[in-house]
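re the bet — no i am not wrong, look at it urself. input seq straight from the record:
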Amino acid sequence: MGDTVVNPGNPGNPGRMNPTERTSADLFFSGYSQEVYTNALKLRAFVLKNLPGISEQVDEPAKMVAYSYGNKYADVVCVIIPSKKGLKLGFYKGNELPDPDKLLEGTGKISRYVLLNGPAVKLSPALKKLLQLALKAYKIRSGIKK
């Protein structure tokens, strides 16, 4: 995997160590269309804001950016998967997540994703709630209290 960036949890500027420095995720997303790039950065900021202290790892061979609280696959909360068509926000153990707003897609044994396409990706309250549910599920899996 690539460089790991730890989100300091700064609510005013989530995920940014130095505003003039380009992160490895920024560089990775820049290999896609302008629309995908812009939406990926918007989604990245949304993820970092809602998952305080999360680590970000670019996995170029897998063509995704992973967000986790540790070094094991089981520590992954979500991933951003860019493509020519748009973005997917994938969730580890997404098959076990409650999905009251019916956002999740996919039929895999473990993961599910939310498809985010179009010129103006909408980061809805329902998506925020799903991210919070994924964080809660991670804490339960990991035996973290609170």
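see?? The CA atoms of residues 41 and 67 lie 14 Å apart. told u. also Strands lie at 4-6, 55-59, 64-68, 76-82, 87-91, 112-116. so pay up
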